[in-house]
Task: inverse folding
């Protein structure tokens, strides 16, 4: 019987490993192949304090968790700006360094490691046999599950998913990607340290082999097999991968060594088959057996039903009827009104060079409250670069950007967004695997659930705020006529639909200044009308808007004032009628 | 203090070892860089094809048909090259098409699966104990009045590795196929527009990269032993070399970086315990990656340099 308890205990320890990696890999999209090494930090720390300092195993494990957490933060800081392939390599290198360093210290047993770690003593109870470990490990695994669930399925977890899907777009919504990456690496490493400490204490050893690269790969496989961003999947993955060993030994009657090889070969092949047939894992993200049993809807059928549906704003034209371009007199009047409105954004002398290429040359422009300003010019003029400079994605070489009198130069994109200037992207950049509601909810500012302290210590206020956030997000979806799509993943939308959801997401930030990058490009006429009507209604609400647009009909219809850009410089301004009447500008724009 | 005790003879020997091991790291690095740089696939199963190449030669020469060593090598390399191409054609390509923007991760996971399954299937078929490829006479070579001693195998390894790298460099520079590979590496969509089939180019890259891994594995196994996990360490070094050199760089540069990494590994034993030398290489890599992370200009330059997200 003890042997079965042994299998169960090891599976439970790997449940903790897999849950912690899923938080990092599944939710935040940060690929780590060094997870067992973080476990090694926990295991070696516990072993050292137990063997050399004669500590009880509980404080030893806690110190191990702390050291792992610190290492996690260090790795996160190194990984911040790296792409996936570099993060894989970094974690591979970190794993080699950690185990290499441990193997060189005599105090840590050298290349043999720490062997003969004393029996764990839990408040006077000596845990000598596998059966003694079952209940404590079940409790730890349950606590870690709830802890990870609370993080993953909360506004905090929603931001992690945003980081996973598109960190630039997440930053544009006022979320500090830096903070979330560091926190998730730290938490994940700390939990791996916990698992490592328990594993070493249970096995009475901490050796390079126990936490070797193959163990990291096994944990990785458990998460992929179970399903990324599905915690129940990780539990299943750990149990299946670890549970196959006794099955092969006891049922198929293989020797322990051969069973080990067969098990590893099988799950390697399983990974391969899964990636081909079911890349989302056995239990995909968002899948809940409980919801299924209660008769939850068929997501695929719902997507099929609505994916070609016309949003309310288009089908009913409930904001404005189709409008023609304003007359000459009306354009002149709009231009005057633009100048008379309060100044919100003042840009002076903005300059940026990339080597010999001038991206922005001494740019000066203003945005006024409750007006629409357009930025037009030929391809390559630097219009989108201006948005990147204004919102902190690119640091200018010189110049100032003042929003309501506050200089924004040097601020990161999320700080700019929080101060009230938010941008959209030409290529939409929705979070494809998140529902439309989640996409928009992420943009709502001031959510207590995005912070760990209230998440765990003020759960009621967090839940209340989350309900309000979802209502607000639904309101904005309704505003753009997309509320019926709330539960649909953004990846299932047509291009026109996704542009409307992207607009709702920008609006949900409730920022005063909106920078819209080609809001009407690449979409059907019916969607263009809907989009223009919506933008006009935003002006009526008093929002300050700047659009980059190629379609001069759109500019003529919307813009109160237009800047003309060429080769990084603003060379003219006025109404679009005035600008297109100038032969040189027309030639520059149309290339004639 | 430690440095002062190192003699010139030891330095010469360490340098010779560095060049010999570095030739293998460099050859593997060139193969991996070609695959990653052109196809965007993080081919972790490279360690499996490396080990399997040695087992093929061992089986063909020492166990089954008892082929002549060089014939066994030729057949083994042909088999392993076909396997590399097959992995790309029947595993990675369909996955990448299906995964779209997340192709890099999907392919990495699949490669991991192949690597794990492959190593353990080797253990099941051939056993875990080490095997030897025999049949090549071993002769010591003395240089600089016995200040550096190595084997005839080492010379063959360095010469064959350098030769293959030179051939690849010439192929990339002077032939239409090479220009097609470089065009695909620069922009696969544009390459397709001008009549290049990126799928075929990807398979060619896998063929070359896998062939290189097979040659490196052969010399390793002739010198040491054939074991199921023999591929992991050299292939991790190959990753290090490829990333340090830049996956879009010329094969000669990658090869030289491989030798430099190996020299650092060897020379570091002059100033620190031998147990630390491997760690030193990874510490260098970590420092390099940190420098990438904190310097946006370098990051931008690397992004322009080639690899990456566009291909993912």
Result:
């Amino acid at each position: 019987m003890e042997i079965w308890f042994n299998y169960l205990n090891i599976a439970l320890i790997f449940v903790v490993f897999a849950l912690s990696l899923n938080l990092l890999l599944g939710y935040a999209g940060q690929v780590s192949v060094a997870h067992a090494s973080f476990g090694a930090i926990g295991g070696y720390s516990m072993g050292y304090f137990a063997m050399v300092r004669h500590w009880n195993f509980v404080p030893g494990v806690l110190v191990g968790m702390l050291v792992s957490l610190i290492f996690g933060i260090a790795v996160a800081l190194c990984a911040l700006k790296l792409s996936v392939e570099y993060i894989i390599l970094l974690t591979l290198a970190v794993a080699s360094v950690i185990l290499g360093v441990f193997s060189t210290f005599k105090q840590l047993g050298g290349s043999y490691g720490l062997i003969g770690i004393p029996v764990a003593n839990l408040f006077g109870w000596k845990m000598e046999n596998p059966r003694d470990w079952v209940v404590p490990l079940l409790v730890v695994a349950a606590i870690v599950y709830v802890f990870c669930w609370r993080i993953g399925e909360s506004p905090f977890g929603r931001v992690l998913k945003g980081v996973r899907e598109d960190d630039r777009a997440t930053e544009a919504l006022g979320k500090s990607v830096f903070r979330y990456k560091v926190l998730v690496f730290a938490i994940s490493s700390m939990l791996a340290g916990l698992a490592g400490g328990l594993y070493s204490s249970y096995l009475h050893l901490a050796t390079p082999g126990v936490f070797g690269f193959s163990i990291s790969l096994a944990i990785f496989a458990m998460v992929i097999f179970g399903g990324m961003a599905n915690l129940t999947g990780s539990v299943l993955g750990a149990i299946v991968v670890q549970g196959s060993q006794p099955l092969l030994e006891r049922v198929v009657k293989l020797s322990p060594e051969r069973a080990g090889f067969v098990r590893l070969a099988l799950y390697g092949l399983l990974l391969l088959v899964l990636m081909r047939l079911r890349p989302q894992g056995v239990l995909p993200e968002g899948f809940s057996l409980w919801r299924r049993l209660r008769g939850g809807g068929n997501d695929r059928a719902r997507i099929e039903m609505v994916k070609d549906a016309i949003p309310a704003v288009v089908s009913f034209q409930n904001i404005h009827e189709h409008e023609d371009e304003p007359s000459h007199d009306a354009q002149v009047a709009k231009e005057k009104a633009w100048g008379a409105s309060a100044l919100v954004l003042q840009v002076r002398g903005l300059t940026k060079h990339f080597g010999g290429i001038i991206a922005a040359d001494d740019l000066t422009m203003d945005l006024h409250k409750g007006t629409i300003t357009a930025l037009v010019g030929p391809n390559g003029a630097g219009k989108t670069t201006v948005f990147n400079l204004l919102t902190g994605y690119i640091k200018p070489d010189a110049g100032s950007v003042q929003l309501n009198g506050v200089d924004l130069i040097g601020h990161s994109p999320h700080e700019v967004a929080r101060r009230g200037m938010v941008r959209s992207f030409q290529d939409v950049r929705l979070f494809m695997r998140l529902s439309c509601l989640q996409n928009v909810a992420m943009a709502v500012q001031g959510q207590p659930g995005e912070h760990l302290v209230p998440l765990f210590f003020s759960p009621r206020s967090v839940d209340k705020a989350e309900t309000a956030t979802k209502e607000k997000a639904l309101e904005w979806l309704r505003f753009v006529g997309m509320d019926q799509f709330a539960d649909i993943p953004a990846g299932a939308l047509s291009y026109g639909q996704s542009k409307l959801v992207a607009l709702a997401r920008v609006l949900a930030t409730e920022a005063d200044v909106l920078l819209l990058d080609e809001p009407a490009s690449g979409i059907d006429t019916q969607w263009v009308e809907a989009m223009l009507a919506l933008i006009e209604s935003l002006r009526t609400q008093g929002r300050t808007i700047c659009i980059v647009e190629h379609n001069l009909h759109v500019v003529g219809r919307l813009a109160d004032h237009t800047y003309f850009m060429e080769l990084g410089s603003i060379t003219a301004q006025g109404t679009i009628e005035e600008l297109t009447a100038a032969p040189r500008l027309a030639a520059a724009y149309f290339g004639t | 203090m430690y440095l002062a005790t190192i003699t010139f003879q030891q330095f010469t020997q360490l340098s010779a070892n560095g060049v010999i091991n570095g030739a293998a790291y460099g050859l593997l690095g060139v193969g991996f860089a070609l695959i990653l740089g052109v196809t965007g696939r993080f081919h972790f199963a490279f360690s499996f094809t490396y080990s399997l190449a040695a087992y093929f030669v061992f089986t063909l020469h020492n166990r089954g048909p008892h082929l002549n060593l060089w014939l066994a090598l030729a057949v083994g390399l042909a088999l392993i090259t076909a396997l590399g191409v097959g992995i790309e054609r029947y595993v990675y390509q369909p996955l990448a098409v299906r995964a779209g923007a997340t192709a890099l991760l999907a392919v990495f996971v699949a490669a991991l699966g192949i690597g794990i399954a492959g190593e353990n299937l080797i253990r099941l078929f051939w056993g875990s104990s080490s095997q030897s490829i025999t049949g090549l006479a071993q002769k010591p070579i003395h240089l600089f009045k016995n200040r550096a001693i190595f084997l005839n195998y080492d010379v063959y390894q360095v010469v064959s590795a350098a030769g293959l790298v030179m051939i690849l460099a010439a192929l990339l520079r002077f032939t239409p196929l090479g220009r097609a590979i470089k065009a695909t590496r620069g922009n696969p969509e544009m390459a397709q527009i001008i009549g290049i089939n990126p799928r075929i180019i990807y398979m060619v890259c896998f063929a070359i990269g896998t062939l290189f891994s097979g040659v490196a594995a052969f010399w390793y196994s002739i010198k040491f032993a054939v074991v199921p996990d023999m591929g992991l360490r050299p292939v991790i070094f190959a990753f290090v070399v490829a990333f340090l050199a830049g996956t879009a760089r010329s094969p000669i540069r990658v090869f030289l970086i491989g030798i430099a990494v190996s020299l650092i590994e060897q020379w570091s034993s002059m100033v620190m315990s031998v147990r630390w030398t491997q760690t030193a290489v990874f510490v260098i890599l970590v420092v390099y990656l940190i420098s990438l992370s904190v310097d946006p200009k370098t990051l931008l330059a690397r992004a322009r340099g080639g690899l990456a997200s566009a291909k993912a």
Remarks:
- The radius of gyration of chain A is 28 Å.
- Chain A touches chain B through 47 residues (CB under 8 Å).
- The CA atoms of residues 46 and 60 of chain A lie 4 Å apart.
